[in-house]
Design a protein that fits this description.
The chain has about 400 residues and is of the alpha+beta class. It contains twelve helices and 16 strands. Helix 9 crosses helix 11. It is globular and about 80 Å long. About 30% of the residues are buried.
């Protein structure tokens, strides 16, 4: 049976079926792709004994020729999270997300890291740990004050300041306040909600940026906007800029948080007044993609997912060569015909190369698996099956 990969994607026009087309685990095992938005899912978790089962409704606008055109019920083996669990007050998928956690379904990013990034104040606390270790000069995190309820809203940063209510992203619950009168008015609004609030100094910026990291691949984007909320409105201009050692270091440090983040975006602003950078917030697996690089970056995410799936399933199944003897590998392939054996070996070598490129810590394991692949190919060569792909006479 193929492994089932569920992609939870908030942008229904993105086609993950196409991105994963033809890709196999360990070069031989098919992957069944299922793509859905949170509202189209309902979950039951049977915990340690049965894992997580999802009922997927037919999509409102299904991708043509895909399984989205029908209702289906599947047991999940792995998840790619490409949608936040909480949005505006009507959009809350935490109960669905918790089913994945209950069944301990492996995922990219990890479920534990996604859980921590669900609340931006927890993500900010992770950034604080980096600044405490590296210092403010190397990691210029913006100062921020947290208020658990409206009664605590007494001492503020200097005005003007930016207040953010609760967990939301994308500019929701966010206002610029110029004086104490406006701050007290906002605290009065906060009193009618169950949410916390944060306040930080308003940085008069000429451009804001994002350092994006997907596996070993980095990008830096620069955005110029007429709106003080750079991500609001249609007037912003986004362009690529240089990946400096400083930006790379920021991303690498953030990738270590919460047990590891394979996919992240770190937002910052460049100040008009002092020319310094100020780091604002960390975004995890559901980062938006710039259209110009969208398909390429989706491919990088696919490579990360394949790497993590092989890493996970190599511990529990017999196909990976690194975990089995040569004779066991030969028996796994013996059921295939000669042409399929050649194709399988090519795919195995290809995926080994992807693993080595994507993750340094897997180099030792990949080298060992490559050695096993060559040994196995040598045995097949002696039977005259794969001489053509290695150029042997």
């Amino acid at each position: 049976m193929p492994k089932v990969l569920l992609v939870v994607e908030c942008q229904p026009n993105l086609n993950w079926y196409k991105i994963f087309e033809g890709v196999k685990l360990f070069g031989v095992e098919d992957i069944q792709i299922e793509q859905a938005e949170w509202p189209d899912c309902s979950f039951v978790s049977y915990g340690a004994s049965g894992g997580a089962v999802v009922n997927l409704r037919r999509a409102v606008k299904p991708l043509p020729g895909t399984s989205q055109e029908r209702n289906r019920t599947i047991k999940i083996d792995f998840v790619l999270l490409r949608s936040v669990e909480r949005g505006t007050w009507t959009k809350d998928a935490r109960n669905l997300f918790f089913a994945l956690m209950h069944a301990n379904v492996p995922s990219v990013n990890t479920l534990s890291s996604a859980y921590n990034c669900m609340e931006r104040v927890i993500a900010y606390g992770g950034l604080v740990s980096i600044r405490q270790r590296l210092g403010k000069e190397k990691f210029p995190l913006i100062e921020q004050t947290y208020y658990s309820n409206h009664n605590d809203c007494v001492i503020t940063p200097e005005f003007p300041l930016v207040v953010k209510l609760g967990y939301a992203h994308s500019g929701y619950g966010k206002m610029k306040l110029n004086d104490m009168t406006e701050f007290r008015d906002f605290a009065g609004v906060m009193a009618l909600t169950p949410h916390y609030m944060t306040a930080e100094p308003f940085i008069e910026w000429d451009w804001d940026g994002r350092v994006q990291k997907i596996g070993p691949h980095y990008r830096v984007f620069k955005r110029v906007s007429m709106n003080w909320k750079g991500n609001v409105g249609n007037s912003s201009i986004v362009s690529s800029t240089e990946l400096t050692d400083e930006f790379k270091m920021w991303a690498d440090e953030c990738a270590k948080l919460f047990g590891g983040l394979d996919i992240l975006g770190l937002d910052f602003v460049h100040s008009k007044k002092d020319g310094k950078y100020y780091i604002l917030e960390l975004n995890d697996t559901a980062i938006g993609l710039v259209h110009q690089f969208e398909e390429e970056d989706m491919g990088y995410m696919r490579d990360v997912v394949i790497m993590r799936m092989e890493e996970h399933f190599s511990k529990v199944k017999a196909l990976p060569m690194a975990d089995e003897s040569t004779s066991s590998s030969a028996s796994s392939l013996s059921a295939l015909n000669d042409a399929d054996q050649v194709a399988a070996l090519k795919e195995q070598i290809k995926m080994l190369q992807i693993q080595v490129r994507n993750e340094k810590k897997l180099r030792e394991e990949a080298d060992e698996r490559a050695k096993k692949a060559v040994e196995h190919a040598e045995k097949l060569r002696q039977r005259g099956l794969v001489a053509s792909i290695f150029g042997w006479e």
